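FORM 12-B: Structure-to-Sequence Request
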């Protein structure tokens, strides 16, 4: 791989024997990979599952996560940080059999619930006691209890939100279950301004999968009624809906952030359910492969295929040439589940971009 320049400006894609990409605004040229082997080992398919899951999460939350990490430029650097931090966490989740992250099934690229790290920075975490008060699946409304005050003053509200100066902002991120089985994501931003009451001191804006919000301040409590953009799952409730918050402050032209992470305890699909949908090839015992685990996954895959073939085409049929990603393209990584580089360089529209770690002929 080498840095290069061209008369025609920055290029992407492949031409004859070379592949061109742009990393941090610089042209990168490398030999085009041809004739890849695709053994589809358990380790390789596990990596594809993890990268697809985090790539789908980044795509679903890109509206804020492409600029939510302090001291990093918007776009590529923030995407890499998101991928790096969450790939590290989801591997730990998988290895210990925890349920803090769900996993994408084969060729699925929708957001699944997980304890995603969506921001980092030096400001204190806001809204320590915020909670989902209620979820009405019929009307598509989610009510958030953000701040409970003692005296009903805006000073108490501002302190809870981490807002000290006019222009400071507190953004509440919401992840909710949709009727199609995936999750929606949106955010409500409150900007601190001059006003004579609590509501007059907050300018409100929304982004993502949220249609509208109605804030209220009664009984010394700040609440927000959120109307989501997609139909809620019939079983949606407060336990399956998640929130976190980010404080933002501009200082000398730079933006400071607070750290933010969703708190998910019972995420689905589980790793076992997800990996069973991936087409796993032959495992070789003498090469150190975990044959028993692979056999279990393959057996489960066979049962699923047998069941699905009676009424529809098998989900895992066809050839996997790189796994699913958030952007609908290839979601591959150059490492195995045991460690190595998370290979998150490349196009922000394709977080799993880069080589698949496949051997060349």
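FORM 12-B RESPONSE
SEQUENCE OUT:
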């Amino acid at each position: 791989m080498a840095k290069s320049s061209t008369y025609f400006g920055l290029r992407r894609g492949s031409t004859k024997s070379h592949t061109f990409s742009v990393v941090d605004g610089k042209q990168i040229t490398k030999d085009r990979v041809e004739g890849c082997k695709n053994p589809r080992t358990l380790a390789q398919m596990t990596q594809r599952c993890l990268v697809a899951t985090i790539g789908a999460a980044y795509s679903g939350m890109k509206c804020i996560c492409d600029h939510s990490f302090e001291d990093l430029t918007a776009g590529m650097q923030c995407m890499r940080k998101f991928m790096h931090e969450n790939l590290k966490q989801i591997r730990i989740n998988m290895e210990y059999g925890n349920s803090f992250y769900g996993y994408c099934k084969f060729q699925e690229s929708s957001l699944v619930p997980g304890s995603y790290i969506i921001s980092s920075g030096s400001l204190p975490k806001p809204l320590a006691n915020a909670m989902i008060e209620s979820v009405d699946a019929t009307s598509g409304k989610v009510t958030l209890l953000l701040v409970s005050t003692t005296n009903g003053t805006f000073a108490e509200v501002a302190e809870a939100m981490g807002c000290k100066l006019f222009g400071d902002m507190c953004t509440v991120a919401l992840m909710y279950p949709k009727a199609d089985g995936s999750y929606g994501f949106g955010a409500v931003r409150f900007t601190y301004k001059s006003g004579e009451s609590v509501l007059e001191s907050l300018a409100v804006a929304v982004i993502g999968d949220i249609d509208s919000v109605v804030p209220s301040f009664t009984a010394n409590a700040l609440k927000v009624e959120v109307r989501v953009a997609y139909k809620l799952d019939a079983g949606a409730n407060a336990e399956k809906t998640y929130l976190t918050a980010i404080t933002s402050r501009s200082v000398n032209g730079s933006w400071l952030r607070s750290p933010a992470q969703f708190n998910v305890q019972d995420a689905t699909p589980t790793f076992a359910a997800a990996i069973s949908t991936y087409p796993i090839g032959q495992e070789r015992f003498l090469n150190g492969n975990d044959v028993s685990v692979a056999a279990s996954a393959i057996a489960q895959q066979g049962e699923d295929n047998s069941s699905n073939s009676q009424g529809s085409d098998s989900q895992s049929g066809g050839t996997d040439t790189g796994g699913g990603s958030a952007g609908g393209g290839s979601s591959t990584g150059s490492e195995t589940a045991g460690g190595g580089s998370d290979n998150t360089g490349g196009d922000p529209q394709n977080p799993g971009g880069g080589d698949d770690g496949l051997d060349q002929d």
